[in-house]
Amino acid sequence: MCTVTRAHLDQRLAAAKRCSREAAIAGAKAAAVATVATAVPTLASVRMLPWARAHLNPTGQALIISTVAGMAYFIVADKTILSMARKHSFDDAPEHLKNTSFH
Can you tell me where the transmembrane regions are (predicted)? Predict the structure, then answer.
């Protein structure tokens, strides 16, 4: 039977906090890029296209921009957390599972 030490739990908690922080930062960067990438064509189309001027009020424009920013944040944060979890689970795996060769 294997016992879990306090130091091991503290180490895992620190890794989880670091992973969450990195995912939040990556998500925020993606949201900032997505905001600019969405705001420029949305605001330009409202000024140049008659249909957009007639149908996209400021609330609609803000909804388009914020939806894309929110989606970018959550998608990138989720992908970052999953990739880090995959990496850490492989690092913590027993040696007989790490050997993936077919010899």
Answer: 59-77
